[in-house]
Amino acid sequence: MGEMSWSGRQGVTVRAAARAMSDPGATGRFGTYGGRYVPESLIPACHEIEAAFREAWSDPEFRGRLDTLLTVYAGRPTPLTPAWRLSRELGITLFLKREDLAHTGSHKINNVIGQALLAQRMGKERMLAETGAGQHGVATATAAALLGLKATVFMGERDIERQELNVLRMNVLGAEVVPVTTGSRTLKDACNEAMRHWVSSVDDSYYCIGSVMGPHPYPWMVREFQRVIGEEARAQCAAELPVGVPDYVVACVGGGSNAAGTFAGFVDTTARLIGVEAEGGAAATFGRAGVLHGFRSLVLQDEHGQVTEAHSVAAGLDYPGIGPEHAQLRDGGRARYETVNDEEVVQALLCLARTEGILAALESSHAVAWVIRAAKSGEIAPGSTVMLTLSGRGDKDIASIKELL
Amino acid sequence: MTESLEEFLIARRGTGRPLLVPYVTAGVTPGWTDVVHAYAEAGADAVELGFPFSDPMLDGVTIQEASDRAIAAGTTVRGILEEVATLDVDVPLIAMTYSNLVVQRSTAEFCAALTASGLRGLIVPDSPLEEVGELADAAAAEGVDLVLLAAPSSSRARLREITERSRGFVYAVTRMGTTGERGEIPEEATRLGRELKGLTDRPVLFGFGVSSPAQAAELAGHADGVVVASTLMRKLLDGARPRELGEYVASIRRALD
Ligand SMILES: Cc1ncc(COP(=O)(O)O)c(C=O)c1O
Questions:
Q1: Which residue in the set A45, A292, A304 is minimally distant from B55, CB to CB?
Q2: Beta strands A272-278 and B93-96: pairing type?
Q3: Which of A210, A266, B29, B98 lies most in the core, judged by the most C-beta atoms within 10 Å?
Q4: Distance of alpha carbon A202 from alpha carbon B127, whole angstroms
Q5: Mean pLDDT of A8-16
Q6: What is each CA distance from A312 to A209, A260, A318, A367, B189, in whole angstroms?
Q7: What integer best gives the mean pLDDT of chain A?
Q8: Looking at CA atoms only, how far is residue A296 from chain B in angstroms?
Q9: Positive or negative, the Cα torsion across A41, A46, A48, A49?
C-alpha cells in the first residue's frame, strides 16, 4: 500500500502526500502555510518549545511515559466500533473510531498529556490553554491535576454559557477559568487572550494549544500527539477489513487536530480523506489566505482583512481558521473539505444516538452528518467502507440539544 | 520632504533632544486626523498610526477598545490611506498594524500604497525576523522604513540581527507583556536599552507602557526616545479632545527636553 505511486481521483501521488505530513523543519512551513507570526517577545519561547519537543519526541523514555499514560490513564487504544444498524440503513460499512471513550470524553486528552509531559520536562509550573467547547480546557485541567501543575483556561463568555457543564468540570478539577469578554466572546478571542497572557508569563507558564494551530512548532507537535488516533485506526482497519484500508476516512474539523491525527495514519494509503467543517465556520471552503494567531493559513475574513466570527451549534468548531497543514492538504488535493449545516448536524446526532446508542458531541456529529448525506446521495458508493473518527461524546451538549429539539 | 524616516529621526536626534512618537488609532473618532495635527504641533518627532485589526494579539485592553471602535465605525486600510494622503504634517507618519492586513493582496502592494499616501514607516509586531524577509524587501523597494521590535527576551544574537535589519529606528519593547499603561519601569527595559545602544547607531525608542511624562523622561535617558500610545488612547476613549491630547503630548515634550 504505502509505497505504490497511486494517483487517485484527487490527483496527487501517495508519495508526495506522505511527505506532506512529515516534519515541517525549522521554519514550520507546510507549503506556503504555517510559520511563526508572533511578537519578538514570544520567539525565544517558541524556539525553546520546538527544541524540547524534538528532543523529547526522539527520547524513548519520554515516548514510553506517554504511551503508558495513554494506556493506563487515558484508556487507549480506543475501540473501532462497527456502526451495525446505521451501516445497514446507509448501504455502506461504517466504522467509528471511538475517541468519545477516551478519558475526559474526547481526543483532546491525547495532545494534552503529551504537552503536559513536555511542560513538566521544561520545568514549567503552569499550563495556559484556550478552549471553545471546553473539552480542551477539561483535558488541560485533568492533565495538570495528574502531573501536579496549575492550569489557567481562557474561555469566551458565550462559550461559558453554552458549555456550562465543562466549566463546572474544570472548576472541580482545580483549574482557573478566565472569562473572555472581548470580540465575539468565543474561541478566537480566547486564543488572543491566552496569547496575551502567555507573553507576560512566559518564564513560568507553558501555553498548551488545543489544536493544530498557532506558531511553529504547535501545528506539527499537536498533529504528532494526535497521530495515535490514525495509527491505531490504521492497524484496526487492517485487522477488520478484507482490503485493509477503508475507502473513506472522515473527521470533523475545527482547528483540525482530530482530523490531522486521523489523516496522518492514512495519508500514505488510497483512502480518500474528508474533513468536515461547520458551514458557519468553514475556513477551508470560504476562507482566504491570511495570518491569524501566529500562523499563515486559510482564514474567514471580510474583504478588508478583518477576521470574521464563525457561527455553528458546535462551540468547538467556531473557529475562523484551519490548521496550516490542512490548507496544504486541500491545495494539493490530498484531502477534501466539506461543510454541513446545523440542522443536518442535530439530525445526525439524533440518528447516531438512536441507531447505535452513541451520543456523540455536536462537533463529531458534523462528520456523521456528512457521511449520512453522502451515502444517501450516492456520493459515497454503496458498499464502500468508511472510517469515521468520532472525536468526542455529547454529554456536554445535552442542554444545547434540548433547546434545539 | 524626501528624506527617509530614519534620516529624519537622526537629524532630529542631532539637535540634542530625545525623540517623541505619539500614537493614535486611525478611525477611532471621526476627527482622528485632528489628533495627528495636534501631536505634530505639540512637538512630536513622528506620529504612529494604528491601522485597526480585529485580533490585535499584542495589544492590551485600551488599544483593543480603540481598534474595535474604529472597525465598528467602518474604518478600512483604504479609507485610512485616503485620509492620510490629504494630511499636511511636517513630521513623518508611521503605520502600525498586524500581518493579516499587510498580506491581503501582497506586501509589495501594501508598501506601495503606504508610500503613495506619504507614510514613511511601518511596524508589524507579529512579523518577527523569521517571517519578515519578503516584507522587508518590499518595504525597502518602496522606500518605507520597516521598524523591527526588540524584546527583553531576545538573545544577543537576535538583538544584533534586529539592529542590523531594522530601519527607521529600533523599537525596544519595555516589558514582556502587551501594550497598556503600567506603573513602573522594569529593570529589563533599561538593560535592553543599554544593550541596543551598544549595538547600533540607529535611533532606539522605547515603547509599551510609557504612561506619564516622568516615565517618558526617565526611559529616554536610557535610549533615544519613546513611543507613547495607550495612555493617550485612554484619554481619547474617555472623551479628551484633540487639543487636550496635544497639551498632554506637549507636557511630555517638556519633560523630555
Ligand atoms: C469533541 C470535539 N471534537 C472536535 C473538536 C474540534 O477540534 P479539532 O478540529 O482540533 O479536532 C473539538 C474542539 O473543541 C471537540 O471538543
A1: A292
A2: unpaired
A3: A210
A4: 19
A5: 41
A6: 21, 21, 6, 14, 44
A7: 94
A8: 9
A9: positive
Residues of B in contact with A40 (CB under 8 A): 125, 128-129, 148-151, 153-154, 158, 162, 173
pLDDT for the residue A2: 33
Q: Report the alpha-carbon distance of residue A129 to residue A234 in Å, rounded.
A: 30
The burial class, CB within 10 Å (0-12 / 13-18 / 19+), for A350 is middle
The four Cα atoms A245, A248, A253, A258 give a dihedral, to 10 degrees, of: -20
Residues 6+ apart with CB under 8 A from A201: A126, A128
> What per-residue confidence (pLDDT) applies to B184?
86
For the record, the C-alpha cell of A23 comes out as 516534519
Is the preceding omega at residue A217 within 30 degrees of 0, hence cis? yes
The sheet with strand A288-292 has its strands ordered as: A29-30, A33-34, A295-299, A288-292
pLDDT band at A184 (very low <50, low <70, confident <90, very high): confident
What residues have CB less than 8 Å from A301, skipping those under 6 apart? A287, A288, A290, A307, A308, A320, B100
Kindly report the backbone phi and psi dihedral angles of residue A273, in degrees, each rounded to the nearest multiple of 5, phi listed first: -100, 125
Q: Which residue is catalytic, options A97, A108, A124, A396?
A: A108
Cα separation, A66 vs A49, in Å, equals 17
pLDDT(A17) > 80: no
Given a contact cutoff of 8 angstroms between Cβ atoms, the answer to whether A395 and A165 are in contact is yes
Residues lower than pLDDT 70 in chain B: 1
pLDDT of the residue at A199: 94
Per-residue DSSP letter, A308: P
CB-defined contacts A:B, below 8 A: 117
Q: Where are the domains of chain B?
A: 5-247
**B7-27 b/e with 16+ CB inside 10 Å = b?**
ebbbebbeeebbbbbbbbbbb
Q: Roughly how many angstroms between the first and final C-alpha of chain B, as a whole number?
A: 25
Please enumerate in sequence order all residues whose Cβ is within 8 A of that of B16, keeping only pairs 6 or more positions apart, or say none.
none
Residue A52 has pLDDT above 70, yes or no: yes
Above 60 in pLDDT, residue A10? no
Furthest-apart CA atoms within chain B: distance in Å: 44
Domains of chain A: 3-23+75-106+225-404 (3.40.50.1100), 29-70+109-218 (3.40.50.1100)
- B257: annotated active-site residue: no
Chain B CB within 8 Å of residue A291 CB: yes
Please report which residue ranges of A241-307 form alpha helices under DSSP H: 257-264, 283-286
Q: How far is A310 from chain B (nearest CA, A)?
A: 13
Report pTM. 0.96
Q: Is A245 helix (H, G, I), strand (E, B) or coil?
A: coil
What's residue A8's pLDDT? 36
CATH class label, B5-247: alpha beta
Give dist(CA B50, CA B34) in Å, integer.
Answer: 15
In tens, the pLDDT along A113-162 reads 999 999 999 999 999 999 998 999 999 999 999 999 999 999 999 999 98
pLDDT beyond 90 at A12: no
